[in-house]
Amino acid sequence: MIMPDSEPTIFAAVLAAGSSSRFGSTKQVVLLEGVPLVRRAIDTAGTVCDNRVLAVIGHDAETVLAAIDAGPCFIAVNEDYGKGLGGSIATAARACRGNADALLLLLADQPLITPRHLRTLINTWSGAANEIVATSYTGTEGPPVLFPGGAFEALESLAGDRGAHALFHDSRFALKTVSFEPATFDIDTPADLAALV
C-alpha cells in the first residue's frame, strides 16, 4: 500500500513491438495528423507520467525508433515480438520493476486514448499493491490498464499470445474499471486508419 503522504511512482509503457501483419506495413510509424502513431501514444503518456515513459519495440525496430525521434522516453526491445503481446508486457514489467509502484500499459495503435482518461485510471487506483485498474468498453476490459507493483511478477511470466487479461480474474488481484468507449477503436488495417483521416 502506498502511504497517503507519498506520491506513487507510475511508469507508462507504450507497447509498439508488433509485426503489423494485418496492416501490411509497420503501422507504428504511419502518420495520423502528421504524427507517427507510436509518437502520439508516447506524447499522450508523457502528459500524465512526465519522463517516466517506456516504449517497447521489436519489429522493424530501427524504423520505429526513428519515428519516436529521440523523444523523452526509455526504450526496451522485445526480441521475441513475433510470438505475441505477452512478451512485450513482460519486457515492460522487467524494465520498470524496482523503479515503479505501478505500470500503465498502453497500445501504440489506440489513437483515441486521451490524457484525461489516463489520469482517471491513475486517480481511480487506491494505491493497493493488488489492485488493477482497467479500461472497460463494449462489454469487456482491456488497455490502457494500470497494473500495481504486486502484479509485476505475474506480468514478467507472460509469454506468447497470452496477454494480461487473465490477471483481471485472478483471485490474487482486485479489479476496478473505468468506462471509455473510444478505447474499443484500434488500428489494425489501412481502412481503420482511413476512418480517422
Describe the structure.
The protein is built from 6 helices and 9 strands; from the N terminus they run βββαβαβαβαββαβα. It has one domain: Alpha-Beta Complex (Spore Coat Polysaccharide Biosynthesis Protein SpsA, Chain A). The relative contact order is 0.19. It has a 7-stranded mixed sheet, sandwiched between helices. A two-stranded antiparallel ribbon has the order 2-3. It starts with 9 loop residues before the first strand and ends with a helix. The chain is α/β, with parallel strands linked by helices. The mean pLDDT is 91.
Topology:
Layout: E1 10-16, E2 31-32, E3 35-36, H1 37-49, E4 53-57, H2 61-68, E5 74-77, H3 85-96, E6 102-107, H4 115-124, E7 131-137, E8 140-148, H5 152-156, E9 174-179, H6 190-194
Parallel strand pairs: 1-4, 1-6, 4-5, 7-9
Antiparallel strand pairs: 2-3, 6-8, 7-8
CATH superfamily: Spore Coat Polysaccharide Biosynthesis Protein SpsA, Chain A
Radius of gyration: 16 Å
What share of residues are in beta strands? 15-25%
Spans of at least 5 consecutive residues with low confidence: none
Any idea how many domains?
1
Annotation field: number of helices: 6
Helix content: 25-40%
What is the global morphology?
globular
Biggest sheet, in brief? 7 strands, mixed
**Which architecture would the CATH scheme give at its second level?**
Alpha-Beta Complex
CATH domain class name:
Alpha Beta
- Could you say what the CATH topology is called? Spore Coat Polysaccharide Biosynthesis Protein SpsA, Chain A
The mean pLDDT is 91
Query: Which H/E pattern describes the elements?
Result: EEEHEHEHEHEEHEH
Q: How many strands appear in the DSSP assignment? A: 9
Class based on secondary structure composition and strand pairing: alpha/beta
Question: Strand order, biggest sheet?
Answer: 5-4-1-6-8-7-9
Distance between the termini: 44 Å
